[in-house]
Structures are given as structure tokens and as C-alpha cells.
Amino acid sequence: MSVSNPTLITFVIYIAAMVLIGFMAYRSTNNLSDYILGGRSLGSVVTALSAGASDMSGWLLMGLPGAIYMSGLSESWIAIGLIIGAYLNWLFVAGRLRVQTEHNGDALTLPDYFSSRFEDKSGLLRIISAVVILVFFTIYCASGIVAGARLFESTFGMSYETALWAGAAATIAYTFVGGFLAVSWTDTVQATLMIFALLLTPIIVLLATGGIDTTFLAIEAQDPSNFDMLKNTTFIGVISLMGWGLGYFGQPHILARFMAADSVKSIAKARRISMTWMILCLGGTVAVGFFGIAYFSANPAVAMPVSENHERVFIELAKILFNPWVAGVLLSAILAAVMSTLSCQLLVCSSALTEDFYKTFLRKSASQVELVWVGRAMVLLVALIAIGLAANPNNRVLGLVSYAWAGFGAAFGPVVLISVIWKDMTRNGALAGILVGAITVIVWKHFELLGLYEIIPGFIFASLAIYIVSKMGEPTKGMLQRFAAAEADFRLNK
């Protein structure tokens, strides 16, 4: 690895820029609300792009292109499901959650919102929610750190141990220093970099393979079934892939962006920006993998790294087809995808530990300065635990990303969705929803029932549990009044 390596220089400049943004955000972070939610000050563009970037991890530029490269368009059902789920989340949850959290104790976290919305004096709802967040997000963080380590390892020839710390250090630094504003501002830059890479790369691949007609003929010659959307799939298989979209309703790091918007009026514009960004990115991702089939079948001499690991298709195309400086920018997009998701997950874990445990149960009278520094300490703590889990890249915990997505989607998704649209939901209904959703996911995954992705039965059973248990009781007068006030606020300002 030479210091003059353009890719290395590009990475260093990119990482330095992200850390600089973190120090800029530090100047605007004065209290816990600033550190956890940016003082609810995000405009529509930052809300939109940070929500998108925090969602799309290294999977966007490595996992999905690799799956399309190996199996053709039949792997694109997951992208379709994600687009539908994200749109419905923006439409039904985003604006309402923004006003509901403000009307319910100006809640800064999901456990805080659940506790205030349902007047849970026991603290049980807060504790269970926070534990679910900590367990699943620590696993998520570990997987993100491994993805970053693999990128540094393959790009610069580092040992895995060195790459592990190199990949995580910058993300930890700007999250530690700048909190939510740093995460959101860097996410906006990272989202821009990701869409640039995913629009430019397939265009250049098309030019390199002779245009649309030649490319499609080459793909068909390699295997005509590459065009078959139902290749090697079943009805349950398609439903399972599209079921990933249900997860959006319960992902704390995405929902936090809605809570942090400066007003409900920003949400509609943010939805249009975010969905345009998401459709273009996913379309570009599918195109990279699909056109890569034509390129590498026509150039078998350079296909070895991709044949050994199909998730390297984007990396290899960037290295082969672009000037080293441009390739460095494109490969930085992978790092951007990893860093944007990892930083959000670290911050949500820190928020749960600081707001929902430390402030609520240990130091109710803690000053804002103390809480901000506790939040920073919690970022370091969670990061170190995640690095410990990631130290063995073959650890089974790293295969649980889809499991964690299902866990959040089923445990929190129905509770969040129903809580913002149904006034008669009760505290016991919320508890039942979280527990039934989480237990269903665990049991369904263990027994691999029907070959169906566990988020689907988890989401359905949790929703039924919320409705049935809520019908057994009734909300308090205060709950009804706050719900009505928030709903009126939403309808007035949307």
C-alpha cells in the first residue's frame, strides 16, 4: 500500500471531511435534545437524505449487486418491497410521529415516546423497548464494522485486525463529538456520494459493453433466465422478499429522522426527495449487478475476484473502468453507506442508555452537560462491544442482520404504526404488541416455518395482539386528549 495510492488519498480526504463535520456539529450541541435529536431542527433535505442514508448500509453497494449478478432480476423483489414499505412509512408514520412525540412529553427516543404516549408509570414499557434496541442494534453495529473492515482489507491489503479499527475509528469519532447533527449532516453528504456512484457506474458499464442492446444480448447469452423475475422463486419466496418493507415501521434509526424534523410541513417535501433518492439508488444498484453479468462474461480475464466473491462486483467495476482518483471516490461510497448506518445505530444505542436508563432511573436531576457527556461515553461503550463482537468475522452473530431487521419490524413496527393512527390503543396493547412480535420472530426463525420470512407473521400477530388487548381496556382521558391534540396539529400543518 503506497501513500501515493489515489484511492488511499481519497479515503483519507473523505474521512477527514466527515470528522470535520463532526466538530462543526459540536458547536451546535448544547443539551441532550441537541445530541440525540439535533434540537428537532432538520430541514426537509437533511431529513430526507439522512433517513435514506441511515437505512442503506454496505448491503446497497455490495450485497444486492452481488445477488443480482449471481441470480438475475429475480433478486430485485426485495428492492420493490423496500420501496413500497419506505413510502408507506413516510406517508402514514413520519408526520404523525413528529407531532405525537412532541405532544407526549417532547419524547427524544422511542421508549420515551411509548412510555409517555401510554402513561406507563411502571417503566416496564420503557425498559423492554430499550433492551430490544440495545440487543439488536449492538448486533447491527458489529455487522457494519465488519463490512467496513472488509472494505479496508480488500482495498488496501491491511490485516483484518488493523482494518477493523481503521474502518470504525472515523465513524466513532464524529458520532462521539457531534451527536445527531453530525450524523445527519454526514448522512446527507454520504447520500449524495452514494447516488453519484450508483448513477455513474451503470452508465459507464453500459458504454464499456457496447450499449443497451449489446449488453442485454450478452446477458441473455449468458443465461436467458436472468431476465425472469420469477426464476427459482415461489409465491412464499416473493412474499418473504417483499416483506422486508414491513421493517421500516419499526426501525429506530429511521424513525428518529422523522422525530427530528423541524416541522410537519417539512415531511411532505422530505418524502418526495427521499423516495426519489431511494428509487434511483436501488435502480442503480440493480443495474450495476445486472450489467456486470455482461461485462464480466465478455472479459473473463478480469472476472476472477468477482467469481470468488460476487459481492465484489461494484468494487471491481469501479477499479477497472475508472481513473484511480474517480475509483477512489466511488469506493468511498461503500464506506459512506457503512458509516452512515453505523453512526445512526451507535447514536440510537447511546440515546437508549442515556435517556431511558441513566436519566430515568439513575440521575433524574442530571444536568444537560452531564447527560451529553454520558451520551458520548455510551457511544464509546457500544462501539467497543460491537468491535469485540466483530473481532471474529465468522461469528454467527453477524448472520443475524435480517433477524434483527425482523425483530425491530415486528416488535416495534405495529406499535408505532397503530399508536399514531388509532386513539384507542392502550398501554397493555402496546406491551402485548412488542412481546408477541418479538417472540413470534424468535420462534418462527427457530423452526423455519413454511419458509416464510419471520417478519410477516410477527407483524400480523403483533397487530392482532395490540387490537385484541386494547379492546379489553380503554385509554385514559389524558391519552385521548393528547392524541386528539397531536392529530389536529398534524392535519393543520401537513
TrEMBL record:
PROSITE patterns xrefs: NA_SOLUT_SYMP_1, NA_SOLUT_SYMP_3
Reactions catalysed, as given in the entry: L-proline(in) + Na(+)(in) = L-proline(out) + Na(+)(out)
**Which UniProt keywords are present, listed alphabetically?**
Amino-acid transport, Cell inner membrane, Cell membrane, Ion transport, Membrane, Sodium, Sodium transport, Symport, Transmembrane, Transmembrane helix, Transport
GO (cellular component) term, any one: plasma membrane
Is-annotated flag, keyword Transmembrane? yes
Q: Which Gene3D superfamilies match?
A: Sodium/glucose cotransporter
InterPro entries on file: Na/Glc_symporter_sf (IPR038377), Na/Pro_symporter (IPR011851), Na/solute_symporter (IPR001734), Na/solute_symporter_CS (IPR018212), Sodium:Solute_Symporter (IPR050277)
Annotated membrane topology: Multi-pass membrane protein
Q: Where in the cell is it found?
A: Cell inner membrane; Cell membrane
Q: Does the keyword Cell inner membrane apply?
A: yes
| GO BP terms | proline transport
Membrane-spanning ranges: 6-26, 76-94, 124-152, 164-183, 195-219, 234-256, 277-298, 325-350, 371-391, 403-422, 429-444, 450-469
Single GO molecular-function term?
proline:sodium symporter activity
Its biological purpose: Catalyzes the sodium-dependent uptake of extracellular L-proline.
State the family named in the UniProt similarity comment for this chain: Belongs to the sodium:solute symporter (SSF) (TC 2.A.21) family.
PANTHER family associated with the record: SODIUM/PROLINE SYMPORTER-RELATED, SODIUM_PROLINE SYMPORTER
Recorded protein name is: Sodium/proline symporter
Q: What is the lineage of its organism?
A: Bacteria, Pseudomonadati, Pseudomonadota, Gammaproteobacteria, Pseudomonadales
